[in-house]
Amino acid sequence: MTETQPPPSAIAGRAAPPTSLSFARSLSDNAIGIFPPEAFEEEVVFRRVFGRQQIIMSRAAGIQHILVDNWANYRRTAAGIRILRPLLGKGLLLSQGEDWRRQRRTLAPAFAPRTVPIVAGHVARAAAGSVTDLRAAGARGRPVDLLAAMQFLALEIAGTSMFSLEMARYGAELRGLITRYAVRLGRPNLLDFLLPVAIPSPRDVLRWRFRRRWLDFIRRIIAARRAQLPAGAPRDLFDLMAAATDPESGAVFPPARLADEVATMIVAGHETTAVALFWSLYLLAGAPAIQERLAAEVAGIDLGPDAAAAALSVLVYTRAVVQEAMRLYPPAFTLARMAISDDLAGDVPIKAGAVVLIAPWVLHRHRRLWKEPEVFDPLRFLPGAPPPDRFVYLPFGIGPRVCIGAQFALTEAVLVLATLIQNFRIERADDTPVTVRAIVTTQPDPPPPFLLHRRC
What we know:
single chain, 456 residues, alpha+beta, CATH 1.10.630.10, 5-stranded mixed β-sheet, 3-stranded antiparallel β-sheet, 16 helices, 12 strands
């Protein structure tokens, strides 16, 4: 008998193919609305937006060509760059060409598998602290905002694993900066699509004022970390990144670039992992049988700092739950790439200047690619199950620009989820409908309250 559960929420905003203005409005309000119904049925959907060809690509051969075989022919869109640049600067996520290659090979050793035990220990300590806080909240019998709890926990993990710093001192300011940017300045508007990157819009002026405040904050964190006594061995990712050298030139990151890399890792790392954890808990709350199977797997396992890395190998079902949650609710809901030159991708002609959307939100719910795609079923990812095509399950992207922190994000999500379910039975506090709002990541709208019941 298949262990499945009906989807706990409806898909929001499936709209007809948009006009350019309605497309911009959907991106600003809820980007799920840019995907028409046929995108979930057809391998390739063509349309024109802002006078430019746009292709929603769900053909595996086409995705492989664009993201792997001929990836250098595709770059981020101008709108995406101008919106993210104030937060991420010239860090790895937004760099291009030789600059990107240099950053990638310099950072790669800091994210090698040998560093997982360092990260696992930090995750275990932070997760244990979160359990203490959540127990106190649960003991008062009050509903808990698990989205906020996961955001602050992921931020604490980012802070401790990257800087060996307690983030209580910085957490509220950092969350406030990111939230204000996302709500006020991170939403695209019409000028973001119409103006070249070199021509600033009035909103760009506000974005760059924000960037001054943001960089000041990041530099304060780096200064606090540098003020610590040096250690003999690397304690965290900052030690590894600060000491990283380009294997070809021997150069280290200059201070300004190091600040951009730190900002990229904090923003990209903690925000996406937090929503992946939230959706995992949300799905488990609506699927008691699946939650209890996970609880049986984690019962009695030592998830303490010294044992956490070794525990990863036995958390097989827990990992499958996380992978299935990221299928249904991928934190990064779409990848937008613009073709530099004419190309042919999976027999699909692509003109120079065309924008290709490779959308995990669409791919992961595509009716031709998955059996019962809207059903929560972790069995899809257990050993022995037929694996999904590697080009239709893309929670971290794929190819040369695959997320460099993917292994760390999975480590964090699996260990935190195991720790929480080891300690709590989680259920919804009410049945208020929850839909998905996609702006920068896939967020619940509204965040629902939960009840936590102690297991031990």
